Structure prediction request, 449 residues.
Amino acid sequence: MAEQKSKPALLGGSKTVDIDYGDMFVWPIITDEDRQAAIEVLNAGNMSGMDISKKFEDEFKQWIGSKYALTCPNGTSALQEAMFAVGLGVGDEMIAPSMTYWASVLQVYSLGATVNFAEVDPETLCIDPADIEKRITDRTKAIMVVHYLSSPCDMDPIMEIAKKHNLKVIEDVSHAQGSLYKGKQLGTIGHVGAMSMMTAKSFAIGEAGMLVTDDRGIYERSIMFGHYLRQEDPDTITDPQLKSQVGLPLGGYKNRLNQMTSAIGRVQLKYYPQRIAEIDKAMNYFWDQLEGLSGIRPQRPAKDSGHYKGGWYCPAGLYFPEQLGGLSAIRFCQALQAEGVNDAIAGLNKPLHLHPVFNTVDIYGHGKATRSANSDRDLAQGEGSLPVTEAISKRIVRIPHFKHYRPEIIDLYVAAYKKVIENYQDLLADDNGNDDEVGGWNLSHTKKK
Ligand SMILES: Cc1ncc(COP(=O)(O)O)c(C=O)c1O
Prediction:
């Protein structure tokens, strides 16, 4: 006799994940060593110094494999510094993906420059190299690549395009500390890497940022932009032109990181490789068991590619509603949430190019939209201009982010996915479809009910 299918919890069946999962999802992992490090800085009254931050930078650059590293108060400031440091200025254009958080891009306006959005690849969710080349004009100065959800961008063709057209490549590594492209650390392939280290990120220490580069000129321009006290060290600024300008930050920003955060960063870095290795093992264990099911496919690099997802920030699956009778991503996630999978959320970032700030908003009083005013040509990209990017949120579902390899707990989550997929036909009845609200302007948007 055929085995009886169990009823989905959303339709009155019993919940699959009905356990105390303890610290399975707690991140970052904070121990007494972190607490002690912060207290020592506090007790010494050393919050605004630079000695601990410099030690953190030394350790970070050794780990990531770059010549220089510079701490910043957050990823937004590190990325803005990187944009300035590669020479983006008045009238210049930067090519960037639209499927990202605003701080990969929006600061470019403050430099008098603007953005031209390119498509992303629907599997890696990262900028599509083939679409970059089409968008290059004589105003293009830089490409911003975002290693989205810890996935490495396809860096070889991107670096080739950059070389051919004499462009600089900035890597936004906010989602991807420790990720590898063909075995190489992200952030060290382009001309400069910059990243957030905010609490929710893979490398998570509160509010913090880091810039890494092998290029002395980029490093010195970054310091000139927002680190006025560092300029005073006679060995730091060697470029004769910059040397004549030391004393004040050229950008008018003060980008010094609080040293309590640097102290915690030093502790976190010691344990980071082993902690993300455990995440990798747990996430692959989960996906391996779902391999071959209808409706969902892992968003992860192919085995033996040399690519690696550092920390699996905001893990997601590629969702194929057509394999489940058209079941909407929202309904699929509702069913999973009823099974106890709290992190099942449909959609990702809303595409930036559809927000008014990238279309109509006149921020600085040019009398026209800032995006176009900064370039003097109409750059607005309305609905339908980036079809791959615009379709993604209905084809992506976020999945649980396991921080520990505990098969007995992960197995329950696997069972929940299997149950929902097996019963998809019964779930179609009350499916109201995806609403326009699928996704959000950042990745912490509230769960859709
Ligand atoms: C891709 C990306 N870039 C930049 C940032 C900005 O970093 P921060 O919030 O530390 O300023 C974030 C996140 O917050 C991000 O997700």
Q: What stands out?
A: The first strand starts at residue 68 and ends at 72. The mean pLDDT is 95. Residues 74-76, 79, 100-101, 103-104, 146, 172, 174-175, 196, 198, 209 surround pyridoxal-5'-phosphate (CB under 6 Å). Residues 259-290 form the longest helix (32 residues).
